[in-house]
Amino acid sequence: MPDTFDMETRDSRLHILQQVMDAAALRHRVIAQNVANVNTPGYRRQEVVFEAEMARALAGTGGPAAVNVKPYVVVADGPERVDGNTVDLNREMNDLNKNFLLYEAAAQIITSRVTSLKAAIAGH
Prior knowledge:
The chain is mainly alpha-helical. It has one domain (about 1-120). Helix content is about 65%, strand content about 5%. The chain contains three helices and two strands, in the order αβαβα. The protein has helices at about 1-35, 50-60, 90-120; strands at about 45-50, 70-75. Strands 1-2 form a two-stranded antiparallel ribbon. Helix 1 packs antiparallel against helix 3. The chain is elongated. Structural component of flagellum, the bacterial motility apparatus. Part of the rod structure of flagellar basal body. It is found in: Bacterial flagellum basal body. Keywords: Bacterial flagellum, Cell projection, Cilium, Flagellum.
């Protein structure tokens, strides 16, 4: 029975990592949109809400298997330039770098897990 529980826990962790990667992919698209509109008068910066929602879900009593958090996009508050645009290119580049690292870390963990599963199936 412990093996079954362990397998379910690992599968749910992979599901969580998949959700992290989905959120990072959405965030990449949103950051790209923000950067593309850096000179658009009146454009309001957007951002992805995910990590706080995931933390709340994981803190709940359902455990990792019950977690199914979908990222969503919101218009972010921030300082406005004279033209009404709220995009700060330095912030976007910083967010892009952090997002890239998050995505890469999740991808490496998933790759490692899949490699381990393949080796176990092959009997190595």
